[in-house]
Design a protein that fits this description.
It comes from Methanothermobacter tenebrarum. Pathway: Cofactor biosynthesis; methanofuran biosynthesis. By secondary structure, this protein is α/β, with parallel strands linked by helices. 40% of the residues lie in helices and 20% in strands. It has a single domain, classed as Alpha-Beta Barrel (TIM Barrel). Strands 1-2-3-4-5-6-7-8 form an 8-stranded parallel beta barrel, surrounded by 7 helices. It has a two-stranded antiparallel ribbon with strand order 9-10. It is globular. Bound molecules: glyceraldehyde-3-phosphate (G3H). The site of glyceraldehyde-3-phosphate (G3H) has 16 residues, from strand 8. Glyceraldehyde-3-phosphate (G3H) binds next to strand 8.
């Protein structure tokens, strides 16, 4: 299981890299769970990240605006991201979600075939009126994306496991794999939840809060010691 860590700036990105993260995921929590960062921050983080490591950028908790999101995707790619995440927030059904995702896939793959496209849904979708999380693998598949992901939309201390049972998460991962996709899971993941995620076959676990010290995901900052511990726990499973 790979460890994706979400820094907000280059200083935190260095901590994540030194701590042993596998994927550096540039994020702006001020704009939401999957809040988009700025091109110059993505570019600088790409510059300081070793070439053999993926840099991810999220396009935000996106509305149902395929054109707008396609342009944002091109911006993230141009700034240096090679793992593009789309938070399917304002898409109310799978038809709208596929519409957004297939345009993002076209945008990215036309420019850089080997870049990854991630369709991200929310385990607590019912709290924000977005798409049923169990539909995400099929949306990702239909659109030609590479990864089906879940996070939580509302960051209030509740974790992924508060909204979906281990059995439901196992089904999500199984369906993604059956469709030839990778499965990524996030949502205020705690250290003790790494093992169950690995056991159900999760390919990528995403964290911010658990990699921060001196506060939570908003008030704390990523420190290499916390990242190293997460990495060590994963390796020990
Ligand atoms: O992509 C993963 C997110 O950054 C998860 O953040 P969180 O662990 O604070 O919920």
């Amino acid at each position: 299981m790979l460890l994706l860590v979400s820094p907000i700036n280059p200083k935190e990105a260095i901590e994540a890299i030194k701590g042993g993260a596998d994927i550096i995921d540039v994020k702006n929590p001020k704009e939401g769970s999957l809040g988009a960062s700025f091109p110059w921050i993505i570019r600088e983080i790409r510059r300081i990240t070793p070439d053999n490591m993926l840099v991810s950028a999220t396009l935000g908790d996106v509305p149902y605006k395929p054109g707008t999101i396609s342009l944002a995707a091109l911006g993230a790619l141009t700034a240096g991201a090679d793992y593009i995440k789309v938070g399917l927030y304002g898409t109310k059904n799978s038809k709208e979600a596929v519409d957004v995702m297939e345009n993002v896939v076209k945008t990215i793959k036309d420019e850089k075939k080997e870049a990854f496209v991630v369709a991200a849904g929310y385990a607590d979708a019912h709290r924000v009126g977005s798409l049923d999380p169990m539909e995400i693998p099929n949306v990702a598949y239909e659109a030609g994306a590479d990864v089906a992901m879940l996070d939580t939309a509302v960051k209030d201390g509740k974790t992924l496991f508060d909204f979906l049972s281990v059995e439901e998460l196992r089904d999500f991962v199984r369906e993604a794999h059956n469709l030839g996709l990778k499965a990524a899971l996030a949502g205020s993941i705690k250290k003790e939840q790494l093992r169950p995620l690995d056991e159900i076959g999760c390919d990528i676990v995403g964290v911010r809060g658990a990699a921060c010290v001196g506060g939570d995901r908003n008030t704390g900052t990523i420190h290499r010691s916390a990242v190293t511990e997460l990495k060590r726990l994963i390796e020990a499973i």
